[in-house]
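Researcher: I need the complex structure. Ligand is zinc ion. Inputs:
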Amino acid sequence: MSNKPWYLYTNLFDILKAAGYHTAWLSNQEVTGIYGNVPRAYADRCNEKKFTTIHDTETTVYEFDEKLLPLLDDSLKANASAKNFYVLHLLGTHLNYRARYPVEFEIFKAEDEPAKEAFQRDFQAAYDNAILYNDFVVDEIIKRFEDKDALVIYMADHGEDVFDDGVHLGHGPRGNDKYQYEIPTMIWLSEACKKNHPALEQKISAAKDLPFMTDDMIHALLDLMKIETPDFDSRKSLFSEDFDSTRRRIYKDNEYKDGEIIPLGS
Ligand SMILES: [Zn+2]
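Model: Output:
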């Protein structure tokens, strides 16, 4: 395993471009600001980058994620003959949940929810509506790839507490429990993809319950796409027979193991 500083490694987008891919970053998050600058650095490496709106992290007015769909449609049309790699950076179900879905998706009500306090049930209902809308957006994205040899990966950047532990709301510094550590991930393969790459479905299914950390995603992606680079490490690819499922998963000063959060040094 290498211990080079991070900036001596090549990023995913430069690798993909060298492998002949057209890379595109389509985003419904901010262009700049405390949470915008890091994703923007990756967006800047892509052949194409488009944002639904131009604003910074401090802005509280956002567009709904479906605003990405016309951007995706335009790009797919313009790059129909290319090998394409898209990142669609959704707002998803980030706080403020109520601002994430249009009124037609207001299906869940506070009385449908389990939390103890009324204000907590309001948050839970809004979160469930945001999830419902997110399902709609992800489905619309998948529809655009149904007639192609394509694979769609849905992955969140963190879990979320919606008073699941009775106390905490949100993520990051707020609370420290499995609701934030466990991240939803979904991989969808088109019919053409299953037919053209027969081993892929089995390879992906076999990985479904393995303990993984998203910081190794670059290795998993390169493995799926069969791209070889000197820095590729099969022990870090979820889809490799060499995958090291004993790698410790450490966040801040805690280890996450078998669903438990264990403070380091305890
Ligand atoms: Zn986030």
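Model: Summary of the prediction. Residues 94, 157-158 surround zinc ion (CB under 6 Å).
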